[in-house]
Design brief:
The chain is an alpha+beta fold. It has two domains: 151 residues, Fructose-1,6-Bisphosphatase, subunit A, domain 1 (Fructose-1,6-Bisphosphatase, Chain A, domain 1, 2-Layer Sandwich), CATH 3.30.540.10; 118 residues, D-Maltodextrin-Binding Protein, domain 2 (3-Layer(aba) Sandwich). The chain has a seven-stranded mixed beta sheet with strand order 3-4-5-6-7-8-9, with helices on both faces. A five-stranded mixed beta sheet has the order 11-10-12-14-13, with helices on both faces. A hairpin with a 4-residue loop joins strand 6 and strand 7.
């Protein structure tokens, strides 16, 4: 099952409208009362997140009555919703403002992510940039496409990759458990460059367009990764759990490695696995 072009266009236009009406008017215009802390001091939610998600859930629930429609903020309020994704023949998953910390601090590196999954496996992904009003979109039928505000389109390809010492990418080191951070820290000088944009939307966009070579994540929130996995693979890259399993939204532990090529994935996999305990690598 995949989404028709008409359904995909409906999703894109709904996201554009909600970004224009709920997100951009609040950018650099939030009061302290418009920002709240969730699980930790740097895990934020704003009025833009809440209003955008509510609007998109309403539109998608009406357009896809057979689907499970969930968002990051709804799952934060009711974690049991997440467990339903893997059992749904069609789930639509919304990240209303990905990169909320950046958004709340006035940095224009944030986006909207929408994914569709079939029994937890990604079948559609959209990464939308409200600031530029452009998006990267993928399904199972063709290449990842970058669509510009004026209607221009281009097919995307991941980079040529390379060995660990030759590649640059994103590694969510600060979000890892302390034992994992200590195990991986000695490996960092063996990778040419590792950064974090604090925004999965733009990290996967950079990977799919060939600007960087890999992403490594241990926080497996499906609203952050399901769409990005598809953007990566349909652009010619490889995205699997570090133990070799295909990504699925039901995974809550393990490490997800997305890379530009199979060779790059294998080289980084071998490097990371060499430092980690087997229980850290196993996906569950």
């Amino acid at each position: 099952m995949t989404l028709t072009q008409t359904q995909q266009s409906l999703i894109v236009e709904a996201v554009r409208a909600v970004a224009r009406e709920e997100i951009l008017p609040r950018f650099r215009n939030l009061s302290a009362d418009d920002i709240a802390v969730k699980s930790r001091a740097d895990d934020l939610v704003t009025e833009a997140d809440l209003h955008a998600e509510a609007r998109l859930r309403a539109v998608f629930s009406d357009a896809f009555p057979q689907a499970l429609v969930v968002g990051e903020e709804a799952i934060a309020a009711d974690p049991a919703l997440r467990t339903r994704i893997a059992g749904a023949e069609l789930a639509l998953i919304i990240d209303p403002v990905d990169g909320t910390w950046n958004f709340a601090r006035g940095l224009p590196a944030f986006g909207v992510i929408v994914s569709a999954t079939r029994f937890g496996a990604p079948v559609f992904g959209l990464h939308y940039d409200p600031v530029m009003d452009d998006w990267m979109i993928a399904d199972m039928t063709g290449p990842t496409t970058h669509v510009f505000a004026d209607g221009r389109q281009r097919s995307l390809s991941t980079s040529a990759g390379g060995a660990p010492q030759e590649v640059a990418g994103y590694m969510h080191y600060a979000l890892m458990p302390q034992p994992m951070r200590e195990a991986l820290a000695p490996l960092l000088p063996r990778i040419r460059r590792s950064d974090s944009l604090r925004c999965s939307c733009h990290e996967y966009r950079m990977l799919a367009s060939g600007a960087v070579d890999f992403c490594l994540s241990t926080m497996l929130n499906p609203w952050d990764h399901a769409a990005g996995v598809l953007l990566c693979t349909q652009a010619g890259g490889v995205s699997r759990m570090l133990d070799g399993q295909d990504y699925n939204a039901h995974f809550t532990s393990g490490l997800l490695l997305s890379a530009a090529t199979e060779e790059t994935w294998l080289g980084l996999r071998d490097l990371f696995v060499s430092a980690l305990a087997s229980d850290a690598v196993t996906s569950r």
